[in-house]
Amino acid sequence: MTSAKETPVIDDAPLADPAEIRRAMEYYAERGWTDGLPVVPVTESYLAEFLATTSRDPDEVLIPMPHLNKNLTVRLAAINAALAGCLPEYFPVVVAAWDSFLRDGMVTRAIWQSTTGTAGFVVVNGPVRERIGLNCRGNVWGSGFRANATIGRAIRLGAINGLGLKPHVFDQATQGTPAKYSCCIGENEEDSPWPSLAADNGIGPEDSAVCSCVIRSVLHIEARHTTAPEQLAADFADSLCRTGALVRPRASGYVVLNPEHARLLDKAGWTKQDLRQAIVEHGFRTYGQLAAAGKEAIAAGTNWRLPGDHPDAVAQQPPADPNTPVQLIASADAIQIVVAGAPNAGVSSIVETFGPFDRQPMVVKVEEKK
Amino acid sequence: MLERAGIPAVSLCTDAFRITAEAMANQLGFPGYQYVAVPHPVASRTEKEIDEMAHDALPEVVRILGAGLIIRPVD
After folding, report:
1. Secondary structure class of A63 (helix, strand, coil)
2. What CA–CA distance (Å, rounded) separates A316 from A111?
3. Which residues of A touch B (CB under 8 A)?
4. A87-136 pLDDT tens trace
5. In terms of CB atoms within 10 Å, which of A197, A235, A333, B55 comes out highest?
6. pLDDT tens across A277-291, in order?
């Protein structure tokens, strides 16, 4: 109980007029410049702090979208990073994430307008993780870490406000995915027995790097049951090859291994490449399993999976034995491995991507202005 | 885009995409651009149903083309 005589305590919270704060928040919300959550007001002077972290020209186009008459410039990316709640020192990571999306190629092919409803996924490696407090350990997909939450959100707000991809208008997602709010993780390099995603792609340990791609979902893998590497590989391959994910002939994705799984595999003498190869070996469904879901044939033109009796299906002779395997993971290049999370349980995840199926991911060095 | 290149064209979409079609027309500087909206969905219809949809949409396609074409039934 507070006594009436007690001196009121003024703590060190900044004093501000709540009505003014609400007015600023509503200004942005009314214009549709948000993802639904409140955004941070951006002034020219605050924007300048973001632009000062990069040597890139504010007018440089990061993502061109000519069919919508839109260009995401460095300046627009910075405004949206500020709106998202990033600190200025996060901005070089946001720029590298956009560079990686450009090189990946899916965003400029208008995939974020598609009914599929994909999200951006950003993986960060290197010393910048520590500097900005980007989580790569426990609860890595969860909430609680400003850098993860706001860098991922800067991508979404950049899409909404910079590229014009507003839901129900140019973003025609049928359902979308919760990852559209934000989806950014660090790799737990310190607890990983293997070289990082960045190291695998030629980035030195003193440099930081970002790898972005377009994803459909993040699947939970419960695998505390075994210490046999082959069984783990089979478990991951099963989820990667689920029929519900198959739009195109092949599957692709990230395996985000918790450090405990990674150490278990390493202890058994497995490298990342061994795991990828084992997943390829288990990366099939039988013809009968595909036919049961109506995905045993390929459409002429679109290359989408559909039933064998569909008029668009490319004619094929069904195998005599329905147990004949149909390879769904074509090669190790369709599988990327990242180590993240806490080393406290056999819980990993699969990130279902929209490719790449046959090339390395687009890892981009973070350029921090000295 | 085809029409800007001088090639007569008609855009078709299903009625589920009307908002996007109109936003696209505005965004590219053609407010009021005429297009044909057919019933949604397309992907799950049979070949016969698609033929019927095409048949029903054809007079509107021809009207928008504005070429004074005469529709003759297929022999």
Report:
1. strand
2. 30
3. 68-69, 113, 164, 168-170, 172, 311
4. 999 999 999 999 999 999 999 999 999 999 999 999 999 999 999 999 99
5. A197
6. 999 999 999 999 999
Q: What is the mean pLDDT of residues B56-63?
A: 91
Coil, strand or helix: which one is B52? helix
Biggest CA–CA distance in chain B, Å, is 42
Separation of CA A188 from chain center: 16
ipTM of the complex in this document = 0.77
Spatial CB neighbours of A258, under 8 Å, sequence gap ≥ 6 = A339, A340, A341, A342, A343, A344, A345, A346, A347, A348
**Residue A104 CB partners (closer than 8 Å, separation 6+):** A212, A213, A214, A356, A361, A362
Name the E strands within chain A.
61-65, 70-73, 119-125, 184-186, 209-222, 253-257, 284-286, 297-298, 305-306, 325-327, 335-339, 347-353, 363-365
On average, the pLDDT of chain A sits at 95
Task: Check if the beta carbon of residue A214 is closer than 8 Å to that of residue A107.
Answer: yes
**How far is the alpha carbon of B68 from chain A, nearest alpha carbon, in Å?**
31
Helix%, strand%, coil% for chain A, nearest 5: 35, 20, 50
- Cβ-based neighbour number of residue A35 at 10 Å: 18
Q: Is residue A3 over pLDDT 60?
A: no
Mean pLDDT of A59-64: 98
DSSP state of A56: S
Burial of B66 (0-12, 13-18, 19+ CB in 10 A): exposed
Per-residue pLDDT band at B3 (split at 50, 70, 90):
confident
pLDDT of residue B72: 62
Whether B28 and A69 lie within 8 Å, measured CB to CB: yes
Q: Residue A216 corresponds to which tokens in the numbers above?
A: 């459909």
pLDDT tens across A248-306, in order? 999 999 999 999 999 999 999 999 999 999 999 999 999 999 999 999 999 999 999 99
Chain B residues lying within 8 Å of A172, measured CB to CB: 17, 20
Q: Supply A281's token pair.
A: 């070996």
